[in-house]
Amino acid sequence: MSIKYYIDTKVYRTNARERYVRVGGWALDTDGLEITFKVLLNDREADYSVNRVARADVYRKYSRYSIRGKVGFYLTVPLETEEPESVSIFACNGKTEICMVYLKKKELNKIRDCSMIAYHIDKIEKKKSKLVMEGWASSSNGNHSLGYGILSENGEQIRLNVTKSARPDLVEIGLVSENDKNCGFRLEFEGDEAHKYLFEISDQGKKKKILIDVKNVLKKQELKAKVGFVHASMRYMRPRYAKKLAVYVQRNGVKHLKEYIVRKVNSTEIPYQEWYEEHRASEQELTKQRNTVFPYCPLISIIVPVYRTPLPYLREMIDSVIAQTYGKWELCIADGSEGDTAVEAELAKYAASDKRIKFTVLEKNLGIAGNTNCAMKLATGEYIGLFDHDDILAPDALYELVSSMQQETYDILYTDEDKISADTKEHMDPNFKPDFSMDLFRSHNYITHFFVVKKEIADKVGGFRSEYDGSQDYDFMFRCIENSDKIRHIPMILYHWRIHMNSVAGDPASKMYAYEAGKRAIEDHLKRMNVDAEVEHVGLWGMYHVKYAVSSNPLVSVIIPNKDHIRDLDKCILSLLTKSVYQNFEIIIVENNSEKKETFAYYEHIQKICSKVRVITWNDTFNYAAINNYGVKYAKGEYLLFLNNDTEMISEDAIKEMLGHCMRKEVGAVGAKLLYADDTVQHAGVVIGFGNYAGHVNTGIGRNDYGYMVRARINCNYSAVTAACMMTKKSLFREVGGFDEQFVVACNDIDYCLKIRNIGKLIVFNAFSEWYHYESKSRGYEDTDEKIKRFEGEIRKFQRKWQDVLEAGDPYYNKNFPLNQPPFTLG
User: Fold this and answer.
1) pTM of this prediction?
2) Contact call for residues 443 and 544 (beta carbons, < 8 A)
């Protein structure tokens, strides 16, 4: 069956003004067919209305399917005079239908709500001597100004702090009207868990009263969390997790075993093996693929160098190619096993059974580069794909590659990959990659497998070079990329890299020669591109640091807005003056409505003792974008470094690192690695889409922690970086119009980065430019009604301006990671 669905909510509403049954959830068809609905009321077909909504979590979870339109829905069945005895709701795809909901009268009565006021209490929290209650409420009377009250058990009114908020999520799903969107509430009052309270919602003299047993509610919330924990724990009762626990005990003993289990269970991320089983192509899908005829059907030559491959691995490798659902391929094998008759016989047997399989036996082993070149000589396809002799292709690998080329052909394509155990039973360590990122690729070979390139490009660059054996694919890919215009990433696990004793995946330390070859591959690439830079090892396997030269000693204008907080400002300026190895900079302090006399005394003092510092005055109201734009008018430098006054330089070459990147023609803005005072990460790149806006990734990890795929420790590209510490060219800043002043506090730096990307420039996160950021001391948090409303308003402006970017998804963030979960986790 190709229909998948889930029901989130069910309500039976009946009062003087409203009578309906409403069901919310999502439904999709895995074959891309349109989903419609059918409703039976008392076993007879009935009318209904449906409000469809986007569900990013579902899109990402089922990204391998051809999902059409909005899959989320809120379906309403109006009830006129007829008393419902039963309600059935079906999802239909034109071929079949499936019953998603069946409510008998008993179930309907359980979810019945007769009041004029609808409400929901989302949660209750203890805060020292206070209780905080959050939720929403609306009225059928059309009254948009509901009142709230809290009474003690003896009926005394308790002083209440009420904060109202917009709930556009409820408007979108049709639970409240646009006029009633400010229905969210946050109530804070003196109280404790030992007492019960009466919660009143008032509407035109009428009150709805809800008894709140705080102790019981908190216990239920705790129980719900525990139930979630128990459900998650169940997966650790399975044999493969028992093995993992055994390995943990073997390595670490029983010490901290409980903490280890709790940490694993409480994780929102599902185990990768389970995720893989859920997302791999089903037999039904594979059958459909085999019957698909594409308009464009290129021949793909799969290139394999073989050297004394164990026969079981050899057979599994070849069988995985034969099993491809796209049949226009050829398997080109060069055997450098030097007389391994068993391997030769096996290859001969396969070649005799399938004309698409070609092989040549080499007189001697020419090394991995030489053997691969010999295999490439057998190729006659339009594309070649690089395949290791002991790895496995997913059966839909070639199909997905060719499917992606039906609208546009590409010079290079690559896929996501994972690792498999020697017996192929366990999948692990997935590499969910971004779309092409030159800075990430110059930091390490994140592409690896499955790499497919036009044969004419492979021929043009001259194939593989033996002097780079160990990193011969890295060198080859660089040269192919240099000669390519269109590179496509397919965010699907289509290649399985086998781990065993002799593989680099199993023992990276055994391949030091390969890492040296990788360093030389980057150096040669940079020389061919006429880029002046040095390459050094990072101290992590196969990771590199490209240090771009800073030529001509350009002036950098450091722009720091400030309102009082001179202690922070002085620490920031002192770090620039005493720590930075790059000293050709000026500091422009933009004074912003300071109120303390000592602030102005400090300004006078710092300008007297340091000629690098100038203070200019902003006389208008606070607007972060406008203040920085104003500061730029006074900047003499070619490069601008926007810096918060609550930052402090850590690494002495922090400015030089950023400047080296910023001077590159293709780069538009550079961000730094920002740390909290406790040496945990505050900023290491920004991803578009979190909260339907943007969010920092790798936040909260330790200073030296790797982050996902080591991206917190190496240079790479993101869609945005924070302007708390951001460098850009002044010429580009003026070209795109600087910061957009409609974004008074939030969104302005993300908006600027997207404008830079819009003109084809890269945004670079530099992991080697480290700073402390003491976060938001300058203006405070979004903790008042006014600030919250302003923030929400700016988010809405951002969403309208960059709707196409939000819908397309962040190219530097893999689509398999849901945006409603912590970064880089699977859902």
Assistant:
1) 0.71
2) yes
